[in-house]
Model the fold of this input.
Amino acid sequence: MQGLFKASTLLKLAAVAAQIVAPLLIMAWMMLPPASWAEFAARVGAAGAALIAALLSPGWWMTSLWWRRAIPPLFAVATLAALIAHRPAPPWPEDAVSWAPLVITFAVLGYLVLRLRGFFDRRESAGATLDIALPFQSGAYVLAAAGSAPARNQHAQVLRDPSLRRLRGQGLGADLIGVNRWGRHSSRIWPRRLDDFEIYGRAVHAPCDGTVLSVEDGLEDRAPGERRNDPPPGNHIWLQPSSRPDASLLLAHLQKGSVRVRAGQTVVEGERVGAVGNSGNSTEPHLHVHVQDAAPAHAPFDGDPRPMTIDGRRCAPNAVLRATRRP
Done:
């Protein structure tokens, strides 16, 4: 358990460094006097690109979604303050030494622009989009992973790696993490227990009418940060949507003993079917959802992925969804 706590602590420290320390250092860099206006312009571009990459990256539920929203206006204020403070600067570097920061800044800008392309990869399945309801009836949830860009959705890696083709069904999957009023996944700074997480044990409801294809309900919930060689979805429910009988939908990482349905049963949208756990390939409590073409029982992920929307909204990483239905 000590090793698991160390791993989760390192992950949290990395998030703090990338999402809090780095943006503050970038804005402090903006305030340093430039050798020329050209260097200042390049600095604004490089700083802006770095912040955009940080804002597009997942993991903000570990620090705060509110802080994520505060960064753009703070950057605008820092840029304006620097603009006023450095008005006497010459338009171009006046000596060879002054050209070095300009060249380096432009190189950094070019690198960041190339890196940003990976955040906007929009290659998706040609299958018809399935609109489902948010599988919860109360609370707020962040889409921790969604879309087709591997930089923002780890599930999309299966669409790029031929050796993972048999797992391609999850390629456009989404992970839902519950957040509190501070935009965090837990009220504790360093959550160690499953009960520390906002979403753990929360009721999961059928996101559409359909027929239950198969269920698993006997796998243990893992401690935060722990991974085991259990079946990746852990405790789960496979549904065949009534509106798309040629497709299947997965609700994964459910709490042990929480599944209320059985194979062959018909469910209606909004019916309680389970509760959020931390079983299977999961490092913290969340609900995994994806839609794919129907696949054989012996290879349940061996079907082409299908795009989905939730309550009519496209699944975009870091988007916050709020339950509007009443229990």
In short: The radius of gyration is 23 Å.
